[in-house]
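seq/struct pair 1
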Amino acid sequence: MAEYGKVKVTGKIVYGLTDKPANRYEFDCEEMGGRVDVVSYFKHKHGISVQYPDLPCIQLGNARTCIPMEFVYVMGGEHNLAVGKLRPEFQQEVTRRTAMQPSIRRDQIMQALNNKELGNSVMRESTNYSNSFKTLSPPKFNVSWGLWCFTTESRPSQSDVSWFAGQFKTSCNRKGMTFAEAKFVEWPDAFNAYYKCRSNRDAFSPEMRDAVRRNLEQVAQTHKDLKLLVVLLGDNEAITDHLYKCIKLITETEIGTFTTQFVNCKKGIEDAEKKLNNLMLKITPKVPSMPTGSRAAFNVALSEPHPLLRKEEATMIMGADVTHKVAGISVAGVVASVDESYATYFHEIRGQSPYTLNTLKQRNRQSEERIIDLSSMTKSLLEKWKKTNNKLPETIIYYRDGVSDGQFVNVLKRELNGLDAAFKSISATYNPKLIIIVGQKRHQTRLWMQEGGLQADKGKGKDKGKDDKGKGKGKGKGKDTAQVPPGTVASEGIAQPSHMNFFLVSQQGIQGTSVPCHYHVLHMDQRLAKRVCVDDIETITFQLCHMYSRADKSVGYATPAYMADHACERGKHYLEA
């Protein structure tokens, strides 16, 4: 809420902060005859003296409405703050400034360890575990559609959009997906409502949402065989983000007969055309192989999977995560593999309380990390898996994300009981073999090769730098041979001695130092303990890191945990829409 003079504004979203303080942030004001700073404007317009002119202003609702910070109030409790990701331009700058090559990071750490001036605060004794690392071998391994355009500039024109539709169809066919000509290539009627909101710099519009719903229902009725709707967006404005969330909410929770794929055309239609190869990775798992069915049209598959991942083992992989501070509540997401390819997943999403309660039913301040409704979510996923595979899984590997060391006992106790309750609700005799693994990404452990360093780049300018293949915009930066290769596993000497755990670098280090994921095996069925050891868990996890369908390389942590994070993010979009 903002209140100054006789003006009171409520219900606005904080868009950002000005880059200058109130006494130096200027704008054009016809009433005062030219450019004027915020402090002078408030004195002239409202007769108010700003007490803290050296503080920046809050951009309320949009970038043009700048209110001195002292007049803005946050209403309600601690969970009503919309804490989200940084704006893209800020995130890119943070990533650029914090990235550090592994050899440089290694040298700085060793310099700190050997600095006697730091006193006893730094433990200078170190042990060389260079021989405890090992590197795992990587695993070998006619659609109806339409296009909507929500771009607001003079270009692209109708002919440009039609050209893009043709290029899209060609790229799909080149990748082995048979796409017919687009059913329609158009600016829908809802574009007028969207354009009006964008011109007014609105962040939310019920009228636009209703117009989008009418158009989507009309498309579903007119084109009953439609399987994919491609939507072109022209910018990253707040109303465009709201449009994205509305379309996802309506198509996935109300209509459900076709999927959507968004394309950002902020830099023009020609630049969007360059993204088509990457878009194919996202489209293939979305398009069904049959007009009716849950299996994706195309999937990657392991040619030599670990024995526990083979079809005859009937193994189901699960992933789970919780996201907090979403419209005042938390969102829990649980996914389960569709079949033995382990590339596509069923998902369940639930909202839950964002905080825990003590024995007196009073609110604690810590966030609730446990998945409250895990039992019913798991039961639903088991029923879907049975419908697809004609039997229940015999082994379940459950990957959990977002749990710190201090929450292991509470989460394990609650979720192990929830999983067991789900098994019993399916059948009193159903008792699959269960493994529970927690993955942690936020820690201070880094790995590097003992021999290696930053190699000089022979190229000049932006022709070299990223992977030394002419990609990226590196300026003379060569390859760092201190970077550990994908598949590097470390456990001896640095893992926790109390239980089975290990560090795994599964991704190719492109920028900075690769961060390993720390996996903890919190529960393993006694029936598996005799045939499954830590080496097997490492291999299974590394193979699953290659099954992320949106990337053509292995990713930083196991795919089921990744997909659970996506499910939580989608639930967040539903609530915000």
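seq/struct pair 2
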Amino acid sequence: MTHSMVIVGAGIGGLALALLLARAGRSSQVIEARHDPSLGDSRRSINLALSERGRRTLDEIGLTPRLAPHLIAMYGRTRHDVNGGVARFAYDLAGARALHSLRRDALMTQLLDAARDNPRIDLRLGETVATVDLDARRLVCRSRSGRRTLGYDLLIGADGAGSRVGAAIDDQRGEPAPRQALDHGYKEVTLSARDAWRLGLELNALHVWPREDYMAIALPCSDGQFAATLFLPHRARAGVPGFDALARRSDTEAFLATAFPDIAREAPHVAAELHEAPAAPILCRLARHWTDRAGHALVIGDAAHAMAPFLGQGMNCALEDCRLLAALLADAAPADAPAALARFAIDRRPDAAAICRLSADNYGEMRRGIAAPAFARRRALEGRLQTALPDRFVPRYAMIAFTTLPYASLADRADRQEALIDDHLARHPDDAHGAADDGTTGAPLTRALHDALAPLPPAALAPPAAAPITNQPPTLSRAAGPSYTDYLALDTILAAQRPLTDEPTEVAFITLHQAIEMMFALVIRELALLTGPTPPPAHRWPDRLDNATALFQVSTRHFGLIKRLVPRPAFHRFRDALTPASGLQSLQFRQIEFMCAKACDLAAPSVVGDATKPALDPTNHLTGAPNGDPTGDPAGNRATGATAHAAVRGCYWHRATQGSDTLAAFDTQHGPMLAAFAARYAERNLSWRYDRLDPAERRHVAGALGRFDRQVNQAWRKAHLALVRAFLSDPASGPAPHAPRPDAGSPVPSTAGLDWDRYLTEHAQGLRFFPQVPYATAA
């Protein structure tokens, strides 16, 4: 029997290629030795880091929505020093882009399910390729049911670093490339959610413990756990530990106590797990020949380019292989398919060589470079350059993670821009922080980079992320179309309420707050149409603003429903379990504020009733920093990381909750993302754009702006205040059950620990998104 397309290997690459070909109308047979590839391989990493290249392939397949519940956004690295110090470094210095942590088994399960459901894919699990005859274009396969011979027109080896197809190509063409094992290996363990809490690991980051000659990392999982990996030399040498020196459990315990004292102290079980775990090798190999002589067989993924894991590009590169190869085959007639395979190999091998080299080099930066003081200084300068030249300058790591530029060309581009930065820092060592990029010594560097670098192709760059990929609806495929339940993802929505107590009304409390957040998401969609990179014409403003107003009207009515469905005594039976959770932590509401208002208007003294707070410069819409604060930007014309963080810290809600557990939890989970969001909207928010309309346009939009402002900052806030008063004030019937009371007549503290009566009353009366627009125009 002859099959036109045979893919050996049902791993990530093999299944992704089969699904892409199926979308183009091509059938394939996929052969896999494992009976259940989703169970994984003990030698493979538990967690993967999904970047732009891999995401685009999964988007084309249609899997991204299905994977959304399993994806955890990672906005940067968090460095843990041996003395307990912590430093954070964003991956993207200008656009809040994120990598996404993803469990290998979750991805494999979705790929397998999609392949099983696709009639164009013949999936053969539990079948081993025993013989590959490239000249005869024939395979001999074995399984429990016996032996079979299979012919093929095209053969794709996606069977990993020990590829049978790759070995056959090497035998036919000679000069096989040797596999190289690094002198470091790795062991994996799991940190529980409790371990992560004790260690203070924020969820939205990749955590690194760099130790000069070795390191540990931890990636977040969707269940709150972290997949942790220790990279260590196989053999100890003078002053450097190795796996061979950790023969006994006591050796491992002593090593952890010295090298990673925080982990040894807060997660002592890790020593036993590390002692029991096998040390896996790190194997690298770039195949010399990717196709056979006749051009009917090709290797992709690890079979062609097994790389070190230190850039997280192994999976992403393999998925990009699949997307590029599928596009070539889709455009080729059957007779031209061998030429398409040859073209893919010729074009792709230089990129594979570049990313293999870059991945190996990045180990030095991760274990050694990020711990050096110069790293932070250089990142600060790169952040200013990326802000000044967003269409030309992107740091090396961000180019790898957040663009689809060919690896070889981006490596050359990164080398050129880094040479210019090195030369600048050698001549201007005092500019290491980038502070001189204000038209003095920094300006020549900006001009030099502008002149040396061509603009980036817009289609190659991932869009800035206002929010991570989460909670998207499932894929709506199936021949007969979606059912009502599938279309609305009702199984997911109706299972999304997770009460913390046995009080029946807690489910209503959760559901209605979730509904309010859904309203916020729709408001953000409306506002995004007015605050995008290109200013919209003024005639589009009123409809969008009135839509947002209507959504807030619905949200306002929900507070009455909460009061009706959740009686006060019932609320106090579960309120203690919520601490320190608070509506103050609503990221979407904070995003709405920054999309609408200048930062200085979110920090007006009247909002929090703090007579001692310095007056704010009303021209300083970027930071809202006090007059004379050197971190401010009086010109208000450029967003940087430092000023964006100042904008967040200067907000009424941030100042009013300083020192609270609620604020600490919010800053840990959302702080970097909100600061990047504030920077992006500094010169795109509605208030800023309103000021730049001509007088006639202002008159046209003022009414809609006023209606929206009044609905949010009067009606919505006062309805919220009324609900809080109903739950937490001192009723005539007596104090709330179980609520600690300092004295009679005092309100019960909020779950955020606030003096809520003063806080909510004052900001309900004082906050305006658009103070330059009189409310009288809203009639």
